[in-house]
Amino acid sequence: MFARIMLLWLLCAIGWSCSNPNDESDLIGFAHVLDTSQLDSELSETIIETIDLIEKTPYSASLRGRLGMIYEVNHFLEEARIMYEQASTLDPREFAWWYFGALIDQQKGDIDRALEKIDQAIDIDHGYVPVHLHRGNWLLQQDRLSEALEAFGDAAALGAGSPAAVGIAQVHIRREEFEEAVDVLVPYSESLPHPQIWRLLAIAYGRLGMESEAEVARALSKETTPLHWLDPLRQRPNRYVRGFGRRIVFAQSLLRADRYNDALRELERLLDIEPNDEALISNLAVVYEKTQQPEKAKEILERGIDLMPEQFRFYVQLGDLMYRGGHSEDALALLTQSTKINERNPGAYERLGSVLMRLQRFDEAIAAFHNAIDFGYSDVAEIRLRIGTIYGYREQWLEAVSEFSQVVELDPGNANGHVYLAHALIEKGELDQAEAALKWARRLRVNPELLQPPSLLIEERRNQTDPNSP
User: Is the separation of the CB atoms in 47 and 70 below 8 Å?
Assistant: First the structure.
């Protein structure tokens, strides 16, 4: 009886109305924690149904945790935090409620509170790798370096691999233990050459005076992609995504994760709700193509154009589909129409340039590619590679060298950029510069087999110009 009274006292302490500790019907403090009147009807119904279940079963930690997940995945973080705290109070041995609550605290900037909760989660399940990685990063933010090193070490012992190595290296760099940082990172720079690993190596090499190695590391660290790790438990709240718009966003996240069949199932369910929605049509076309259903992709995009003839994205997508299917003239017409509707869409110009290049309308292709760059196309190196290829085809070697030089500057890991640059320099008669370009490519670990043909060509050209050659 004493334990029951103490439990109810704890529940009252987090804001519930408890006029009579023996009366479960008084546990109703969160029934109206979120005003659902302005929400999507599907989300509103899910919240109300869950609250009704909680009122009927007030001691159910799983129901309160479920409501927390509903709130969190639909972007009501403060309400989710309250529900996770209530759930972990009712069931303090459930790992998920402490873990999910800690992640929300961290998002809201309350690192101390997040660390307290994640420590509770680790006490329950020490073997779940992501908790140690999060804990290490949060401790690193607070300059608690010894504790951070211990956390990353725990993650490494559990098989976390490169994310743990990056954390350990950051601790060593903060302590100015640069040799130790290099020792930790070098194996992963060979097996998993992620830009974040190269960024840390560039710092460590530079501080050790190893300027040649630092130069290579700086070149390979230009890409800004963050290093992620798998966290299967974080998928659990996704089952509670509600509302048409939120479900579209969720399907897009599945697409980005290459979970095409899951994305297809989610999007096809939405056809019964808003079959003519622009975002739904666009995303369905993508997922149909990704699941090897190009005819369905074509069909839905044509329907989109019929419904919304001024929506330029449909023309771009269908034009791209036609291009990949080998229908260049159809692709050209669609992409040209897209640029008439929206004159500043970089993706349309990138596709248009590729189509014109295939049709050998090279001046127009170059102009389209320049428009793509001017309007903000993300992969400028790839655009420069195609422009350089056109100049190479025309034997305009000065222009080709200029374009390929920009490719390897923008993207040092672009193997074709290095190979094409070497060939252009050879054709321009600049054999020493070509050799220097290949030497730099080798230092950047470009596949040696790709570099062998231009190397042999340089040797052949030198033999042709050397009167004493055999």
Answer: yes
Q: Is 303 exposed, middle or buried (0-12, 13-18, 19+ CB in 10 A)?
A: middle
DSSP structure string for 129-150: HHHHHHHHHHHHHTT-HHHHHH
Nearest Cα to 427, choosing from 454, 397, 407? 397
156-201 residue pLDDT tens: 999 999 999 999 999 999 999 999 999 999 999 988 789 999 999 9
For residue 3, count other CB atoms closer than 10 A to its CB.
7
* Contact present, 456 and 449 (Cβ < 8 Å): no
Residue 366: C-alpha distances to residues 292, 371, 425 (Å): 31, 9, 21
Q: Which residues have a Cβ under 8 Å from the Cβ of 94 and sit 6 or more positions away?
A: 61, 62, 65, 87, 88, 124
* Token duo for residue 278: 């622009």
One-letter amino acid for residue 34 of the chain: L
Encoding tokens for residue 47? 């919240």
Residues near 44 by beta carbon (within 8 Å), at least 6 away in sequence: 36, 37
Give residue-wise pLDDT tens across range 340-365: 999 999 999 999 999 999 999 999 99
Tokens of 326: 């080998």
Mean pLDDT over the full length of the chain:
90
Q: Are 403 and 388 in contact (CB under 8 A)?
A: yes
pTM reported for the whole predicted model: 0.81
